[in-house]
């Protein structure tokens, strides 16, 4: 029997009560009827972002521009470890379905990573689709990885490197791990993929059950993949779930949510990595939705998730876990 598509109301009724109210300020309740367009979605997203209070980030990141893969300037935002001493680096890749967002929007999160994991965080402002379809975003991330590996910034210590990202950023993190493996590029020691967007096919039970999911639904997903692929077929660097060989990847951590369109894609990828002899820590957060820890960061489940991520990242990079004040 085919899985039943659940209504958005039914899903929200089962979401953690600390998270459910925050859904009202996300994209899905405000989507217009009819065909979606990236330009209109960006305008809507900007309006919702303007209505949110933006935290002050201190110290402010150091913004540098390096030559991108096509010769254009690629912006990197460096958040030094507290105290300023050189530290192992985390490459952070923002979300937004490959069509929305910017590295600057994650400054507060990157500062939290730098403080919570005692690492230097480098956020890459990769180019967005549809203006820059695949492989431009993942190539920008690869260029950022090369720059980090060269340790050209005083905040970065040569040695261990981690990559992390959420949603589209999580998908790019896994795509980057595959690309670095296949090219013999800079070594990545650890990857945190948070509810990653990794499969354009939409073939799992979750894609059927949760087509009307809050925060990120099937309509948004179809628009994002169409823009990202630009009419070309997906390879495994664009859609890591398509990779036939998942051996030889760095140690992974994959987090996903019970009511997330990507849930089964993420679980299956973790299962395949383990079956191939790799290492992968998997968490499926009950009662949560896509982006839960961003829209409701003070919810207990969100605080636990971020605390776990900060601690495991520090351990993976061999730095002392900071003591909470």
From TrEMBL:
Transmembrane segments: none annotated. SUPFAM superfamilies: alpha/beta-Hydrolases. It comes from the Bacteria. InterPro entries: AB_hydrolase_3, AB_hydrolase_fold, GDXG_lipolytic_enzyme. Keywords: Hydrolase. Residues 90-292 form the Alpha/beta hydrolase fold-3 domain. GO terms for molecular function: hydrolase activity. Pfam families: Abhydrolase_3 (PF07859). The keyword tRNA-binding does not apply. This is Alpha/beta hydrolase. It comes from Antiquaquibacter soli.
């Amino acid at each position: 029997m085919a899985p039943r598509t659940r209504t958005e109301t039914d899903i929200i009724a089962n979401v953690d009560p600390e998270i459910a109210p925050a859904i009202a300020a996300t994209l899905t309740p405000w989507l217009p009827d009819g065909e979606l367009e990236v330009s209109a979605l960006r305008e809507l997203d900007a309006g919702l972002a303007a209505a949110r209070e933006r935290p002050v980030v201190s110290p402010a990141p150091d913004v540098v521009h390096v030559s991108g893969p096509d010769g254009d300037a690629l912006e990197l935002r460096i958040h030094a470890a507290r105290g300023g001493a050189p530290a192992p680096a985390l490459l952070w890749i923002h979300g937004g379905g490959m069509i929305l967002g910017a590295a600057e929007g994650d400054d507060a999160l990157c500062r939290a990573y730098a403080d919570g994991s005692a690492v230097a965080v480098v956020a890459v402002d990769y180019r967005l689709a549809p203006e820059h379809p695949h492989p431009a975003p993942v190539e920008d991330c690869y260029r950022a990885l090369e720059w980090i590996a060269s340790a050209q910034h005083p905040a970065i210590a040569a040695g261990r490197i981690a990559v992390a990202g959420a949603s589209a950023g999580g998908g790019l993190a896994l795509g980057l791990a595959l690309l670095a493996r296949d090219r013999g590029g800079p070594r990545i020691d650890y990857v945190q993929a948070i509810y990653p967007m990794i499969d354009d096919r939409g073939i799992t039970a979750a894609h059927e059950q949760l087509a009307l999911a809050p925060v990120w639904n099937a309509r948004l997903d179809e628009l994002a993949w169409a823009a990202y692929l630009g009419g070309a077929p997906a390879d495994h660097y664009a859609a890591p779930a398509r990779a036939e060989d998942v051996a030889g990847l760095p140690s992974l951590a994959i987090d996903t949510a019970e009511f997330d369109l990507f849930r089964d894609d993420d679980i299956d990828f973790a299962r395949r990595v383990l079956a191939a002899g790799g290492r992968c820590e998997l968490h499926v957060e009950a009662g949560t939705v896509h982006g839960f820890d961003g829209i409701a960061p003070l919810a207990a489940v969100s605080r636990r998730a971020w605390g776990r991520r900060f601690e495991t990242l520090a351990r993976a990079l061999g730095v002392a876990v900071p003591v909470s004040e």
